[in-house]
Specification:
Blueprint: E1 14-20, E2 26-27, E3 30-31, E4 33-38, E5 47-49, E6 56-62, E7 65-73, H1 78-92, E8 101-105, H2 111-118, E9 123-126, H3 128-140, E10 146-156, E11 162-170, E12 175-181, E13 184-185, H4 197-208, H5 212-215, H6 225-237, E14 243-244, H7 247-257, H8 269-277, E15 289-293, E16 296-300, H9 302-313, H10 318-344, E17 348-352, H11 359-371, E18 375-378, H12 389-407
Parallel strand pairs: 5-8, 8-9, 10-17, 12-16, 17-18
Antiparallel strand pairs: 1-4, 2-3, 4-7, 5-6, 6-7, 10-11, 11-12, 13-14, 15-16
Helix pairs in contact: 3-12, 4-7, 4-9, 7-8, 9-10, 10-11
């Protein structure tokens, strides 16, 4: 099996051509495109990747060629789902292409996962953040193990939790979870991705304990008391309160604490507002905690949340606090990645996931890692969000299938 060498200077994923479809839909100003890509390694199997759910894409691979189609949009919208199924059906009916394997997200309730399992071909489930990491590895022609920092809103984890602030060690076929943001509850389920006070309240409770409503009273004064009481009941009884390690929800929470975004009406409104107000230049970080638990490092933002609340009470500007927050997250992630590199004997770090559309976070994290002589690879040609999942799924699915064939 032919393998391309690693390009240490620039990405090696080749765009043969990219065309806009006249008949496709638009997803939040992202126009549907068909991209023909040349991959860094060939596979013995042909794989169809069906992506995620919110910003779904479809990808098909054969040898070193891939066709990435999308974004299709939110599959929960009936018209979008019908368009998605037509794309998959047209691929399956193509006389010149028949996939050997269908690669899908691990989330059992994603419509893309359900469709994949209904086709009747062998399926490979690919963890959400592993797929993110592998798509960046594909851009850079990396076919060996790396440390991957994967930060986004949510992705179904192998333990059933909603992951989103992860440090992995991985190759294209497998991964190990080395570290993650400390779990906190998403009270209200999907509402917690829209109403930013919900993750803010969960993290305030984690930081201040049962007195959080007293210690943070001025900040949460704009939320009705009955609503906060219902939140407490749901939190203590774990009713519709799945746990998460989402970095995206941490950004949402801090945006609420600073009073700059109470609601995400579009994609990453709160995180974008938080980045936009941060003052330039170096900032003093807040404290944070790292501990080992069940073989993984846990990154706790609780000391940082306490520091932010104190600074708000002391009258510090939102711009200054935002800058300190960004610096803290960059240091927390870089320190954890460094420990993972040391433990695994690795020297390449991949940055993946929607949170790294934030240039301030990405540049500061990259600088800290490169100062320690690590090679940092981040997406340059593809989008940061879930639009790349199908590509990562295809490459991971092919790697798993190739490994199985080699062992047979």
């Amino acid at each position: 099996m032919a393998k391309a060498g690693v390009n240490t200077e620039s990405p090696s994923l080749s765009f043969e051509h990219s065309v806009q479809s006249d008949s496709a839909t638009s997803d939040r100003n992202r126009t549907f495109r068909i991209r023909h890509l040349r991959l860094f390694r060939a596979s013995r199997v042909r794989v169809l990747g069906v992506g995620g759910e919110l910003k779904s894409t479809v990808c098909s691979t054969r040898g070193r060629r891939a066709v990435l189609m999308g974004p299709v949009g939110d599959l929960k919208v009936p018209s979008v789902y019908r368009h998605f199924t037509r794309i998959v059906s047209s691929i399956m009916k193509n006389d010149n292409y028949r996939p050997d394997v269908i690669a899908h997200d691990l989330h059992p309730q994603y419509l893309s996962t359900i469709l994949a399992k209904s086709i009747g071909l062998p399926c490979v489930g690919v963890q959400h953040h592993h797929a993110h990491a592998v798509s960046v590895m594909a851009e850079w022609g990396i076919d060996r193990r790396v440390v991957a920092i994967c930060c986004d809103g949510v992705g179904y984890g192998t333990d059933g939790a909603a992951w989103g602030g992860e440090v992995l060690s991985c190759d294209t076929a497998s991964f190990e979870r080395r570290a993650h943001l400390e779990y906190f509850p998403l009270v209200g389920g999907n509402l917690a991705a829209v109403e930013t006070w919900r993750p803010a309240a969960a993290l305030a409770c984690q930081a201040f304990g049962n007195n959080w409503r007293v210690d943070c009273a001025p900040i949460f004064a704009r939320i009705p008391q009955l609503t906060l009481e219902l939140f407490e009941q749901m939190r203590t009884r774990a009713l519709n309160a799945p746990v998460t390690s989402s970095m995206g929800r941490l950004f949402d929470a801090v945006a609420f604490l600073l009073g700059i975004c109470d609601r995400n009406t579009g994609l990453a409104d709160a995180a974008s507002a938080l980045e936009a107000i941060a003052v330039d230049g170096r900032a003093e970080p807040y404290p944070y905690e790292t501990r080992f638990e069940r073989g993984a490092m846990i990154m706790s933002p609780a000391p940082m949340i306490r520091g932010i609340v104190r600074d708000i009470a002391a009258g510090h500007s939102a711009a200054e606090i935002s800058a300190r927050f960004h610096e803290t997250v960059a240091r927390m992630l870089s320190a954890t990645a460094l420990m993972s590199c040391d433990a695994c004997g690795l020297t390449t770090v991949v940055l993946a996931g929607g949170c790294f559309a934030n240039r301030k976070l990405r540049s500061r994290l990259t600088q800290r890692l490169e100062d320690r002589h690590l090679r940092v690879c981040a997406s340059r040609q593809l989008l940061w969000g879930d639009e790349t999942l199908a590509l990562g799924q295809c490459i991971a699915g092919a790697a798993v299938s190739d490994r199985v064939q080699q062992c047979a």
